[in-house]
Design goal:
Layout: H1 2-17, E1 20-26, H2 39-52, E2 54-55, H3 57-62, E3 67-76, E4 83-90, E5 95-103, H4 104-108, H5 113-130, E6 134-135, H6 137-151, H7 170-179, H8 195-200, H9 233-239, E7 243-246, E8 253-257, E9 260-262, E10 265-267, E11 270-275, H10 283-291, H11 298-310, H12 314-319, E12 330-334, H13 337-352
Parallel strand pairs: 1-3, 3-5
Antiparallel strand pairs: 2-6, 4-5, 4-9, 7-8, 8-11, 9-10, 11-12
Length: about 350
């Protein structure tokens, strides 16, 4: 009996100690299919999910403590029901990710489109989390109340900026939000939020300066390293405990990682490019981004790189994974060596003007 009680205490202790961080990021690849929610909406939904969802004994046993759960929120015009892709499990980084695509046309035809978008999103998150044995009972019971609270808060609605402009869903959302309160949404001139801040987090520490005060970008060239990946990557990963790095691309950090699965299938190698945009090497490139109206933080750089690649290869742009970007760090990963080569060459060119 004492042995059984001891095992029970251990299991309970492990469950209590298991903590999770939840991040929800909006990434709309189709400019005609997106919802104008703000970065504060992302933060609020992330907090609600993190507070209401509890790890089960099954989750605690299967996954490591302190796992980070990430969701990419997108939309499509050609689907009638929500699409959930994932999970992508990266055990070495203690990260599980999903992509959720909401049915844009179906939602926008409802009389309460903003509320329905929130309900569709939270329902999909519950389905995704249930697949990894997380208890979503409390969250399921709060879906309607959360959706109502979001639509009563004007800060959940993004203010158009010089980059985004007025998207097709803005008028619908603005009218609905305004109908739920006595005063109209603050005018567009009240504040300016750049798109990078909207996609992944709080406003950047980079402050947009008037055009007359912005520094002029100076030419900056640096020789691009030759691509040199191990011929036997599996052996290199085994020798590096599942990680291989190439420091020659500084200030970019090029990393290959094994031990990742997607939708229950193993991915042999994850290729990742990471950098800190506040590094001195980015001074000239950051000035170019600022002059273009883009916030030169991790989120802004991620979208800038994705947009640059999308000009010539939209399919590759859609395959880029930007969910790990933060204000201070840009992190993009792909699942093939060819995609990584194109990604890192494009990123290098954008930084050093090549």
């Amino acid at each position: 009996m004492s042995v059984l009680l001891g095992g029970l205490r251990t299991a309970i202790a492990e469950l209590v100690e298991t903590t999770m961080k939840v991040t929800i990021i909006q990434v709309y690849l189709d400019a005609q299919a997106g919802f104008p929610f703000s970065w504060k909406f992302q933060s609020r939904i992330s907090r609600e999910v993190q507070t209401l969802v509890k790890p089960s004994a099954g989750f605690a046993k299967k996954y490591a403590r302190n796992f980070h759960l990430g969701f990419y929120m997108g939309a499509k015009t050609v689907i009638l029901e929500t699409e959930i892709r994932g999970p992508i499990v990266m055990r070495k980084r203690e990260l599980i990710e999903w992509a959720i695509y909401l049915p844009y046309d179906k939602i926008m035809t409802t009389p309460d489109a903003p509320k329905q978008a929130v309900r569709y999103l939270l329902t999909a998150i519950c389905d995704a989390l249930a697949s990894v044995e997380l208890d979503t009972t409390a969250l399921e019971g709060q879906i309607d109340s959360i959706a109502e609270a979001v639509c009563d808060d004007s800060e959940m609605l993004r203010v158009p900026d010089i980059i985004w402009g007025d998207g097709p869903s803005w008028a619908v959302f603005e009218t609905y939000f305004a109908s739920r309160r006595n005063t109209k949404h603050p005018p567009k001139t009240a504040r300016v939020l750049l798109p990078a801040s909207e996609i992944g987090g709080p406003p950047s520490r980079f402050v947009k300066r008037p055009a007359t005060l912005r520094r002029q970008a100076k030419p900056s060239r640096r020789r691009m390293p030759a691509w040199k990946a191990p011929k036997n990557m599996a052996r290199a990963l085994d020798n590096g405990d599942g990680i291989w790095e190439d420091a020659r691309w500084e200030p970019l950090q090029l990393t290959a990682m094994s031990g990742t699965s997607y939708a229950g299938q193993d991915i042999p190698v994850i290729w990742q490019v990471e950098f800190d945009p506040s590094d001195d090497d980015f001074e000239t490139a950051n000035a170019r981004l600022e002059n273009s109206g883009i916030t030169p933080d991790g989120y802004g750089w991620g979208r800038h790189i994705q947009n640059a690649i999308g000009m010539s290869d939209p399919a590759l742009a859609a395959r880029l994974q930007l969910g790990d970007c933060e204000t201070s760090t840009c992190v993009i990963w792909v699942t093939s060596v060819d995609d990584c080569l194109r990604l890192i060459e494009t990123t290098w060119g954008l930084i050093f003007g090549q």
